[in-house]
């Protein structure tokens, strides 16, 4: 007996629909991967990268982790960025956070068990660095959302300082880093205006 049969049923129906729309669909995708975008987003189940920007399989390379954090010492994230920049040569890297991010909120509360506490430590630092701005916001929800935005900006800043990106820009590669935030309540993206396309 198969486990999770409903998911296999969904999969068969999805594959059949794709083929009905375009008989060469899988053959073409299997031939080559050439996405133009690297998406670095939160693991949150409500923020599926391809879906919210209307991109099909093959069009976006994806790294998702808790609270869309770029740790320079995280081999997982660094390998994704290296492959995207050096091999796939994507033109755009999008760091996309979202309002009401559970990881961001957790980083404002009591210490968590490892490894989550270490993972979220950059956000605890951001809370301290931006304590004055944050304490001036009366509404808990608005303070939380502001911290989500601050986090995206910080990750864009980390990203643009990485040797992988510096080298790509030094050799003249066209590459732009974007910082966006997604609102789960209305399904809309906002550009945080931190676009960077040079070292
Ligand atoms: Co999140």
Question: Can you offer a commentary on this structure?
Answer:
With 199 residues, the chain is of the alpha/beta class. The chain folds into two domains: 1-31, no CATH class; 33-191, Beta-carbonic Anhydrase, Chain A. It is 47% helix and 16% strand. It has helices at residues 5-21, 25-31, 49-52, 75-88, 102-106, 116-119, 121-129, 131-135, 140-160, 163-170; strands at 37-42, 60-65, 92-98, 176-183, 188-191. Strand 4 (176-183) and strand 5 (188-191) form a beta hairpin. Cobalt (II) ion is lined by residues 42, 44, 67, 98, 101-103.
Secondary structure layout plus pairing:
Layout: H1 5-21, H2 25-31, E1 37-42, H3 49-52, E2 60-65, H4 75-88, E3 92-98, H5 102-106, H6 116-119, H7 121-129, H8 131-135, H9 140-160, H10 163-170, E4 176-183, E5 188-191
Parallel strand pairs: 1-2, 1-3, 3-4
Antiparallel strand pairs: 4-5
The chain binds cobalt (II) ion (CO).
The site of cobalt (II) ion has 7 residues, from helix 5.
């Amino acid at each position: 007996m198969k486990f999770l049969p409903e998911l296999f049923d969904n999969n068969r129906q999805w594959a059949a629909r794709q083929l009905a729309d375009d008989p060469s669909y899988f053959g073409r995708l299997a031939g080559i991967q050439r996405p133009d975008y690297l998406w670095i987003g939160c693991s949150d189940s409500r923020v599926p990268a391809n879906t919210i920007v209307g991109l099909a399989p093959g069009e976006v390379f994806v790294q998702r982790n808790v609270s869309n954090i770029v740790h320079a010492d995280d081999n997982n994230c660094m390998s994704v960025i290296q492959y995207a920049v050096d091999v796939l040569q994507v033109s755009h890297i999008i760091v996309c956070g979202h309002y009401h991010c559970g990881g961001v909120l957790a980083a404002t509360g009591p210490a968590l068990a490892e490894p989550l506490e270490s993972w979220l430590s950059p956000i605890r630092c951001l809370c301290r660095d931006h304590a004055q701005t944050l304490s001036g916001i009366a509404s808990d929800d608005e303070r939380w959302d502001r911290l989500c935005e601050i986090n995206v900006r910080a990750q864009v800043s980390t990203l643009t300082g990485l040797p992988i990106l510096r080298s790509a820009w030094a050799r003249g590669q066209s590459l732009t880093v974007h910082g966006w935030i997604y609102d789960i309540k209305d399904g809309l993206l906002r550009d945080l205006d931190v676009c960077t396309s040079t070292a």
